[in-house]
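COMPLEX REQUEST
Ligand: magnesium ion
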Amino acid sequence: METLHNHGERRLGIVASGSLTKGVEVRLDGGISVEDIAVGRYVTVEGEKRRFFGMITDVALDAIDPRLMTMPPDVSDPFIAEVITGTSTFGRLHVLPALTIGGDALSLLEGPQPVKTVPAHFSTVREASEQDVERVFGQVEEKQFYIGTPLDMETKVRLDPEKLVMRSSGVFGKTGTGKTFLARLILIGIIQEGAAVNLVFDMHNEYGWEGTSEEGRKVKALKQLFPSKVAVFTLDEENARRRKVSTDFVVEIGYDEVEPDDIAMLHETLGLTDAAVQATYRLARRFGERNWLESFLAIEGREELNELAQSLGEHEATLAALRRRLEMLRRLRFLVPHASENAIQRILESLDRGIHVVLEFGRYGDDIASYILVANLLTRRIHERYRERVERAKGEDVARPRPLVITIEEAHKFLNPDISGQTIFGTIAREMRKYNVTLLVIDQRPSGIDDEVMSQLGTKITCLLDDERDIDSVLAGVSGKSELKSVLAKLDSKQQALIFGHAVPMPVVVRTREYGSPQSYKEFGFREALERKKKAEEEAKDLWG
Amino acid sequence: MVDRIGEVIEASTGEFMAQCYELHQPPPFGSLVMTKEGEVEIYGVVSGATTTSIEPGRRPIARGSEEADEEGIYRSSPQLAKLLRTEFSALVVGHRENERLHHYLPPRPARIHSFVYLCDTDVVALFSQSLDFLSILVSAQGQADELVAASLRHAAAAHKAPRDFLVKAGKDLAVLLGGETNRLNTILRRIRG
Ligand SMILES: Nc1ncnc2c1ncn2[C@@H]1O[C@H](COP(=O)(O)OP(=O)(O)OP(=O)(O)O)[C@@H](O)[C@H]1O
Ligand SMILES: [Mg+2]
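STATUS: Structure written out below.
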């Protein structure tokens, strides 16, 4: 028997049947144990005219004679077992061919091409070699970003940040599967290659200064790795100080900046009735856009409230309920009557200079209402400015603003079918990159996100999901859906992901590259202080002799 | 070295019968023998052997009641060996023509009185490099399964890695026998060693 450890060329079997839409059935050779095979791995098929490149999407056992199963041979005898496997009983693979590589002169010239047919009967199926994978995913140059390695292989799989940021994308997976680690890697890729500037709404304070691994180990986050390219903004200075994070700016939001639209986004979280939401617009008309919230919150007495209700033509109960619900805003320290410095302006200035902004929520990350309020409010204004500038760039001879990627966690809170039609995030997802703004959404419950938004995501990166609805929603509209489904359901519960869409040439299962070790930081160009000093000294020596 | 052991006394395309030069010394069941038809070497697998009286219809009578051992019978009646003969049959499984081995039937049967040789391990190993002859054996009349098993045990002994050889042969059989799981089981149990 051949050894398990492959150099990539091991013969697995032959094509027995298949179709273009459903993929091909491969009969495993006798010497190959189904247990050595994993879904998600790559194979090549030597067709008569071309070589096909595809992914294993299922593994099955089969027997020539169904009676064999009722009268099993004496497989406790190792000899008999060895004879039977691969002959009377055999393994079957399901392979989804995705691309043709090499084979004829044309395809060598053109590079991998989408498949338009299936390999002939009895074509030989082999494990893909490292070179094959490289041919498909492209060679990763020294300074280029890669996201991980294919299962059981060393070749690096490139995720092209330029292509990624052209459209909105999503990172999915159930809790604890590595979404945050993946997203941080992706952000690093974008920073490293300068594909866009990032604005990260950092709910749990994991992207700015440092995050934690499951073992409680601290891992460096963006600011530590790219000190000159990243600014950490915070909503909660106290919390940042306690965590010994030096922040670049403390964000305050004035009551005068909160518009009724911002409150409307909270209707679900705060349990506001439609009538209560409508009332906010009336309040704004009464007190003015800039004063309504402060004025309304300033009302203390019942009588005063009743008077107001009467003059607005509202039910007293509606206003009273609204007042009660909005009371929570007072507990948010970052909300002040009037902010001394305009946070939106500061964020935009940073972004314009190519500085990536991570907004830490501090303790407010646990309060979903704060997260929704702030993310919506800031994004709405920033998007507006981007839109103005892009429009202006069309008319005048000024540069378009840098592409911007906005990262949000718990994306279904912003993009569920009820509100995605109204929120700024729904708009951004739908308009693609019209105004140079796209999203990186992170979610553990993709089925909670509007189907239409899901279908607009250019690249999807998904860790293990086990809820059928979540799987369906992530794979909706993908060719080979049912095949990919079995691949997705079989991912390891950590640090493995299925990636498909715009930024990769074909669906790929990767072992996400390791993040958190000194070596991993080094690969991002990070140098420990000591090393930095040494390098500076060396450079000085070079300079002065 | 090949050992001359007898002469063809009856032949057809698929089978031949030979008489042994030595009484009671037929080649083992399942072993590989070779005879010639002109330049063509014809290979057969020994499928059975008998020892009978040379006169048809007459059977020897028991003679040993007074003897101390069985050999004593032949010592007391030396003519006995002349009245008996040992014959064996072989299923033709291939031939060699112009230096090339073929694992299918030859163009013509062996000639009567052609010499028959017992193949040595080198020849057995060479011949059994291809297992195509198994299809002839599995469809043999009579005790085909016993024959297949015996010939494989024999051939295995000539190979450097007998187990690997048997696994490969087993796999070929599994394919040849398709749905006949019972027969496959029977044979595998007889060759697992
Ligand atoms: N690429 C990686 N390198 C090293 N460790 C990883 C990697 N991916 C995941 N892990 C490990 O898995 C743990 C969970 O990952 P992560 O925090 O990213 O999960 P998550 O999907 O964001 O979870 P949650 O839904 O709870 O936010 C990490 O704490 C880390 O220990
Ligand atoms: Mg997370």
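REMARKS: Residues 29 and 46 of chain B are 5 Å apart (CA to CA). The mean pLDDT of chain B is 92.
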